[in-house]
Structures are given as C-alpha cells and as structure tokens.
UniProtKB/TrEMBL annotation:
It comes from Photinus pyralis (Common eastern firefly). PROSITE patterns: CYTOCHROME_P450. The keyword Heme applies. GO terms for molecular function: heme binding; iron ion binding; monooxygenase activity; oxidoreductase activity, acting on paired donors, with incorporation or reduction of molecular oxygen. Belongs to the cytochrome P450 family. It comes from the Eukaryota. InterPro entries: Cyt_P450 (IPR001128), Cyt_P450_CS (IPR017972), Cyt_P450_sf (IPR036396). This is Cytochrome P450. SUPFAM superfamilies: Cytochrome P450 (SSF48264). Gene3D superfamilies: Cytochrome P450. It holds the Pfam family p450. The keyword Heme applies. Keywords: Heme, Iron, Metal-binding, Monooxygenase, Oxidoreductase.
C-alpha cells in the first residue's frame, strides 16, 4: 500500500507468501484459476536457499495430473452435498477445508467428489 515501515536490527519480520500471492495489484484475478499464468509468478515454493527441493517435480506432476483429469469426458461434480467443497474461512482471505469425513480441517481440499464418463 506504499507505507514506509521501519525495521530495526533484531526485529522479527513475518511475510505471508499466501497473502502476497493474492495481491491484486501484482496478480490480476488472483483468486481465479488461470492455467496461463506464468508458473514462475507463484511464490509458494519459496526462493533462494529456502526453495522447495521438489519444486520442479511438483510442477510437472501437477500439470500432468490436471491434463489427465481434464481429458475425462463428462467431468462433473457428483450431485448433492458430496459434490460441494466445504471451506472454512481464515484470516487474510485464505481457507481451510473440511476433511472427507467432515471430522476436521486440512489445508488441502479433499471433500468435493467428482465423476466422469468411462
């Protein structure tokens, strides 16, 4: 927002990469899935010496998983409550998701079931 922040030696600084990745000024329509968004613009794998060792493998695996999934004919949510993603809002516009049995929450969305034609 352009404000100046003074940090002294020894001060702790917390940076929310999740919130930063949703900053509309830098990421238009940040909360929408955009498969054409440059993959290097994502910050959730860290950077420099703190970069995720599995970054490249994860990116390839995710792309291939979505390609395989979206090739399925008749891909759709199952009807009723099982076809709904159960989200629990968190600070900063983030969400946790109900677990499959609705007995807890997880950072990973697993509660929505889908189906497709064979």
């Amino acid at each position: 927002d352009g404000r100046e922040v003074h940090v002294k030696a020894g001060d702790r600084v917390f940076v929310s990469l999740a919130s930063a990745a949703r900053e509309e000024a830098y990421f238009p329509e940040a909360n929408k899935v955009n498969p054409r968004r440059p993959i290097d613009s994502y910050m959730h794998f860290g950077a420099g010496p703190h970069s995720c060792l599995g970054r490249e493998v994860s990116q390839v695996a995710l792309v291939e998983m979505f390609r395989a999934l979206f090739r399925k004919r008749g891909l759709k949510r199952v009807p009723g409550p099982l076809g709904e993603l159960k989200k629990v809002p968190q600070p900063g516009g983030l969400y946790l998701y109900m677990t499959e049995n609705w007995g807890g929450v997880s950072p990973f969305p697993t509660s929505m079931k889908i189906s497709w034609d064979e």
